[in-house]
Amino acid sequence: MATKTFLKFCMCFTGFMECAKDDHCAGECMRTFFSKYGPRCAKQLNKEPYELTCADYIRLHDGGPNNGCSSSKTLDAWAEMKRRCPIRA
Known about the structure:
It comes from Bugula neritina. The chain has helices spanning 4-11, 16-21, 23-44, 54-63, 75-84.
């Protein structure tokens, strides 16, 4: 589930539903959101921004920029993503 911060952030592009239906807009929204809040996420996890993983970004998306990356509440989002999109080695 996306946070209110994420939804508000993406609305500035056009409107959330309109943006979600457009691959370019949705991709740009995600890139911009993660560029803006990724460093904060990295700081929460005592990492450098380049060390963030897919799990970290999913947790940021789910929990928001304030404490989403470090909150145990966002671990379920990562578990659900792994269940839906298994990574093949």
